[in-house]
Amino acid sequence: MNIKDIVKDQTARFVFYRDECLFYETDNGFQFPVPVADAGSASFNSEERAILLMRYIRKHIAKTESAKLKQEQDNAQDRE
Questions:
Q1: Under 8 Å between Cβ of 8 and 22
Q2: How would you classify the pairing of strands 21-26 and 11-18?
Q3: Domain boundaries, the chain
Q4: pLDDT tens, 22-39?
Q5: Long-range contacts of 43-48 (CB under 8 A, 24+ apart)
Q6: Which terminus of the chain is more exposed, N or C, with fewer CB under 10 A?
Q7: Dist CA 35 CA 33 (whole Å)
Q8: Residues 14 and 44 sit within 8 Å (Cβ to Cβ)
Q9: CA distance linking residue 33 with residue 25, whole number of Å
């Protein structure tokens, strides 16, 4: 999924809290964590424009793609 598709004209809604992270979901179903430690003195609303949370969306996409690549490499090594 393209990051522009995730944030353009999308609302992110708070879904649940786990492991010191607030999890938001965009209108198109993309879920991502926002670490509570990053809040500092700021507040997080139950709904935000997704573009305002793009920093966290970008980090989650990078982490997910990295994990997927590692899994593919591990699978390739197992087949050898």
A1: no
A2: antiparallel
A3: 3-79
A4: 999 999 999 999 999 988
A5: 44/14, 45/14, 46/13, 46/14, 47/11, 47/12, 47/13, 47/14, 48/11, 48/12, 48/24
A6: C
A7: 6
A8: yes
A9: 9
